[in-house]
């Protein structure tokens, strides 16, 4: 049996939505993008959502539009895109450690890393579970810092019943591994109307109105660049996918949680630590990760699973501060380094079948025996 790491949850509705856009002839910067933005803003519970071509672009735009120059505190236990966006926006990443149980950034270490040069905190909601946003927002308010939530992995997750991306400036990813997908794409969420307008212009060459909006004006051919911007727009074909996927999100997240519950009930805790859900959070399991105990050789464990055609992987090793470009960014992150050496990502997607989950459990039990040190 072959079980991939992830698999998009598509049906005929996605095909029909894409065909509708193709038949319309309006493929980019058009009405489907606007519809997707409105639906997404309503879902998160914010005033504005701005569609972009990736979460990475969104993080960079959030920093740029906020006119930030200085230090941005981020976890090292994340995909390198988080740090790259900080660098490419002209800021400096400062790495904070994580908490072992949730793998989310540790607010105590964030507080330790705040200096006179700190301008923002960029928490990453790891694998489907929110960071402790009460603490993060308290620190931000105390030190007058901007909060940019990297919510790439936690679409639909909540903290104290409030959705991630609704606390500070939210930034989401729609990559195929995420809770909804448009193949590539992202979204920025905010309640700040001035910031939203600036981001809208920056993502489209600095021009303050879209082609679709200009068509309603007396002289639609006039374009006025008010900033030096980028081309970070989301095509309408992909927005159409997003509209269909967003309507399925609650059901897809329900299935992810059910699969995680089944794994939690049936995997042995003798040789691994299973995911922990913060009582204040709703975990939406973009990934299902385990941490192997010291008596298990992770390389042997992973190779055994992959030889049995189970798409296991690791997120994230090495952590960003250990990667070549970032090695000069001095950081003491003992929990991050411990977790990165022990963590394993198992298959997780809405369409998993019971027989596939049972196969994963069976093979893991065999892999443990094979990998014992």
Your description of this structure?
The structure is a single chain. The protein is α/β, with parallel strands linked by helices. It has two domains: 12-247, Aspartate Aminotransferase, domain 2, CATH 3.40.640.10; 250-371, Alpha-Beta Complex (Aspartate Aminotransferase, domain 1). The protein is 39% helix and 14% strand. It is built from twelve helices and 13 strands. It has a seven-stranded mixed β-sheet, with helices on both faces. Strands 7-6-11 form a three-stranded antiparallel β-sheet, with no helix packed on it. Strands 10-12-13 form a three-stranded antiparallel β-sheet. β6 and β7 form a beta hairpin. It is globular.
Key structural traits:
Aspartate Aminotransferase, domain 1, Aspartate Aminotransferase, domain 2, alpha/beta, globular, 14% strand, 2 domains
Describe the secondary-structure layout.
Blueprint: H1 12-24, H2 31-44, E1 48-52, H3 55-65, E2 71-75, H4 81-88, E3 92-96, H5 107-113, E4 118-121, H6 133-143, E5 146-150, E6 158-159, E7 162-163, E8 169-173, E9 186-190, H7 193-202, H8 211-214, H9 236-266, E10 272-273, E11 281-282, E12 288-292, H10 298-307, H11 334-342, E13 343-346, H12 354-371
Parallel strand pairs: 2-3, 2-4, 4-5, 5-8
Antiparallel strand pairs: 1-9, 6-7, 6-11, 8-9, 10-12, 12-13
Helix pairs in contact: 1-9, 2-9, 3-4, 10-12
């Amino acid at each position: 049996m072959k079980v991939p790491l992830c698999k998009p949850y598509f049906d005929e509705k996605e095909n029909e939505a894409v065909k509708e856009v193709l038949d319309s002839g309006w493929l980019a910067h058009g009405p489907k993008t606007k519809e997707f933005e409105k639906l997404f803003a309503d879902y998160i519970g914010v005033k504005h959502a701005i569609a972009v071509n990736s979460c990475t672009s969104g993080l960079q735009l959030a920093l740029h539009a906020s006119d930030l120059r200085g230090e941005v505190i981020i976890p090292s236990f994340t995909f390198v895109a988080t740090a790259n966006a900080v660098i490419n926006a002209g800021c400096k990443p400062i790495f904070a450690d994580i908490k072992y149980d949730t793998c989310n950034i540790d607010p105590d270490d964030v507080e330790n890393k705040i200096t006179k040069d700190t301008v923002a905190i960029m928490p990453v909601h790891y694998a489907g579970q929110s960071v402790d946003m009460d603490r993060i927002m308290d620190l931000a308010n105390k030190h007058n810092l901007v909060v940019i939530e990297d919510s790439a992995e936690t679409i639909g997750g909540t903290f104290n019943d409030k959705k991630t991306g609704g606390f500070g400036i939210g930034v989401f990813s729609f990559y195929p591994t995420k809770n909804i997908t448009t193949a590539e794409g992202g979204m920025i969420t905010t309640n700040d109307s001035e910031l939203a307008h600036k981001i809208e212009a920056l993502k489209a060459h600095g021009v303050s109105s879209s082609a679709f909006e200009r068509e309603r004006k007396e002289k639609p051919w006039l374009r006025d660049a008010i900033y030096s911007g980028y081309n970070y727009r989301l095509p309408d074909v992909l927005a159409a996918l997003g509209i269909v996927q967003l309507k399925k999100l609650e059901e897809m997240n329900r299935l992810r949680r059910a699969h995680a519950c089944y794994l939690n009930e049936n995997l042995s805790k003798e040789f691994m630590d299973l995911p922990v859900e913060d009582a204040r959070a709703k975990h939406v399991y973009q990934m299902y990760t385990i941490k192997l105990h010291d008596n298990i050789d992770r390389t042997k464990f992973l190779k055994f699973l992959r030889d049995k055609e189970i798409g296991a992987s690791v997120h994230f090793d090495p952590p960003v501060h250990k990667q070549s470009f970032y090695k000069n960014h001095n950081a003491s992150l003992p929990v991050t380094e411990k977790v990165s050496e022990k963590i394993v990502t198992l298959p997780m997607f809405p369409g998993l079948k019971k027989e596939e989950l049972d196969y994963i459990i069976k093979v893991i039990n065999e892999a443990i025996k094979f990998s014992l040190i």
